[in-house]
Amino acid sequence: MPVSRYYDVKRDEKGERYLEPYVTGFLLLRLPLLNKGTAFTEEERRALGLEGLLPPHVNTLEEQKERVYRRYRLQTSPLEKHIYLRNLQDRNEVLFYALVVDHLEEMLPILYTPTVGEAVREFSHIYRYPRGFTASTKNIDHLEEALQNVPLEEVRLIVATDSSAILGIGDQGYGGMAISIGKLTLYTAAGGVGPDKTLPVELDVGTDREDLLKDPLYLGVRHRRLRGEEYFRFLDRFVEAVRRRYPKALIQWEDFAKETAFQVLERYRKVVPSFNDDIQGTGAVALAGVLSACRLKGERLSEQVVVVYGAGAGGIGVAWALLEGMKREGLSEEEAKARVLVLDSKGLLVEGRAMEDYKRPYAQRPERLQGWRFAGAYPNLLETIQNARATVLLGLSGQAGSFTEPVARAMLENTPSPVIFPLSNPTSATEALPDDLIYWTDGRALVAAGSPFPPVGFKGRVIPVGQGNNAFIFPGLGLGAVLSRAREVTDGMVLEAAYALYDYTREHFPHLLYPPVARLREVSPYVAARVMQRALEEGVAEGEVQGLSLEGLLEFVKSRFWEPRYLPYRPAPVI
Ligand SMILES: O=C([O-])CC(=O)C(=O)O
Ligand SMILES: [Mg+2]
């Protein structure tokens, strides 16, 4: 079966790859995976019916990049830049990725967090071309047929959201499609997954946002969200249809509300290779960063007292990963639990308090609070930090500004170098601005944030702000799972991704909490190789990588890495 209904990639007599298109002429210029624009050679123009349809001068990819980059720089706002780049992606994918790879650090905040948050909010107002697949209450009864309409035959990576909790900005209805697109852009730009192996998905089960339902321009289905059994029936059908059409695909669940995120993960993780980016990806990235911070302080993770502020998918995922990290250093489950304190909007999670089931494993025993002083029914953030003598504070609350000056100063009372990570996204939802945290703690806090922030100048020092974003984890985790043909994404593989990121940072950037995002194309293959190694050890890998060493696995990943280059085109033989 060819890669796509519209083309296949083959090898010539010398083993060089070439592309064989099944369409010719004008259509070639309109399919983003096929279009080379002004870079079609004269020979290709003659052979493929393009003569007269393009300007006479043939451009190189370098020249095309130069042209589009100049226009890019003239766009006046991040959202305009986002729209410009997305238009390019929908016109010519090789050129788009060639440009993005050259300017990864500059363009990531435009295509991904934080600007993608704005693109999600404005989705129906800035809509241009269709991209990805929509499963909605309108097509769920014939989803298998609908999936046949996707022209790609070798999809390996699906990012699917129901948009119920996008970043830290809540229910966004159909607009969540932009997040699925943005995450897959990273899989290709940073993880080397060919764009024709990826499929962004929006699971449009409705929205509870009145303003969206009333907006005449809103593009999603116009009813309230499916819930309960109906909701899971919808998801069951989706998973089943994916399994049939793309049996080798992995599903990354993205931005599901806490009410369903855990159930969705558990319901399908043994049915289809899948993971939840916000629970597991964010958990792993936080663990890696806190381990780096401990190394910089010359302390151990198991000595820390961690406060996790926010008990949604991200908060619980982070609590889980840190507990696992502490257990690895020899603590018992009970000992580790007493060192990871989780708060939701009502305060500290304590056994016996009313709370959702998924939070219960992270509730403190009432004895843990012996001798504590607090005013309300349960300790609030400041009281928890003070009483527990917290040394690490992680924000996953979506509550902008909740890490106030008194909070930062209270951390400093407990330890000379507090670790404070406001991890909520996008920038507008961050618990604190990194420069405030650095000023409030007299430059002593170790700070990383979920969204990108510029370095902070403080008393003659330039302090870089690490980006503790799951972008350092998911491309490598997904890639590793797919390349090893893992039946399942195990917890061991998720944790391995965290330690791989930690090890990479220690080796290449020993003074930093996270590598610079410009290094994502190096980080992701390394994370992938370690994930594959773990999958092999756990016996869940079914692919051709059996018996390979870590170096062998890294070579394997690199040999599969998709690079944005034009292939020569040869017309399909006429039979
Ligand atoms: O998308 C991001 O930047 C990280 C993430 O998964 C989230 O905040 O939900
Ligand atoms: Mg997310």
Automatic annotation (TrEMBL):
Pfam families: malic, Malic_M. Gene3D superfamilies: Malic enzyme, N-terminal domain (3.40.50.10380), NAD(P)-binding Rossmann-like Domain (3.40.50.720). One of its GO terms (biological process) is malate metabolic process. It comes from the Bacteria. GO terms for molecular function: malic enzyme activity; metal ion binding; NAD binding; oxidoreductase activity, acting on the CH-OH group of donors, NAD or NADP as acceptor. Residues 279-536 form the Malic enzyme NAD-binding domain. Its cofactor is Mg(2+); Mn(2+). A divalent metal cation binds at E254, D255, D278. Divalent metal cations. Prefers magnesium or manganese. The keyword Transmembrane helix does not apply. Signal peptide: none annotated. PROSITE patterns: MALIC_ENZYMES (PS00331). (S)-malate binds at N425, N469. Keywords: Metal-binding, NAD. The active site is at Y112, K183. The keyword Lipoprotein does not apply. Residues 89-269 form the Malic enzyme N-terminal domain. Belongs to the malic enzymes family. This is Malate dehydrogenase (Oxaloacetate-decarboxylating). It comes from Thermus arciformis.
